[in-house]
């Protein structure tokens, strides 16, 4: 994100890039909705409108996690400390949209929802169209491929990242230029960005490994490539 062209904060540059819609689908590794009991009556469109109306925090261009927690609690009390959507339970996601303690997911979700609202692009699975944004989860994608899905982020995990990169090149027939390979071996974030594209591709090409959950119209879905 920090290397995107243009001026302004990285978040603003990412909004501008996504808003152009010059892609079939873009995968984003972050929650796109709240658990059903905390969603507004107007559904996902209303959620994004409500997030767009929230003032940003004083130190970031989107609301704090605490603001999202307050929004959710106005609709229902938390059923557990870390409530999960059905799609997150399906894919074994450990992140929780409404957890604001240690390693919180709520700030992450607030940032993503603000991004979706401001980019103004179609959001899958509610709408399948050119230039849509798709929720992905690299750990679930790696598990689907039978690859290590944890403990590949630290510097000493380079061999694990190399195993994943080799799979992408040899089994998925992905051409990776030397400079990009170097980045992926050095950083799990760079590797996750590439893996995220497969979930977006699965949604665009209808090559999903799993059917969408029954309540996808309310809570959305995570896309995993077959």
Task: Detail the topology: elements first, then pairings.
Layout: H1 10-20, E1 25-28, H2 43-53, H3 65-73, H4 86-90, H5 106-119, E2 132-135, H6 138-144, H7 158-170, H8 178-186, H9 188-205, H10 216-219
Parallel strand pairs: 1-2
Folded structure, characterized:
This protein has a two-stranded parallel sheet. The radius of gyration is 17 Å and the shape is globular. With 226 residues, the protein is mostly helical. The protein is built from 10 helices and 2 strands, in the order H-E-H-H-H-H-E-H-H-H-H-H. The mean pLDDT is 95. The chain has one domain. The longest helix has 18 residues, at 188-205.
Structural class: mainly alpha
First-last Cα distance: 28 Å
Radius of gyration computed on alpha carbons: 17 Å
The pLDDT mean sits at 95
Shape: globular
Give a quick summary of the entry.
This protein has ten helices and two strands; from the N terminus they run H-E-H-H-H-H-E-H-H-H-H-H.
Features:
single chain; 226 residues; mainly alpha; 2 strands; 45% helix; globular
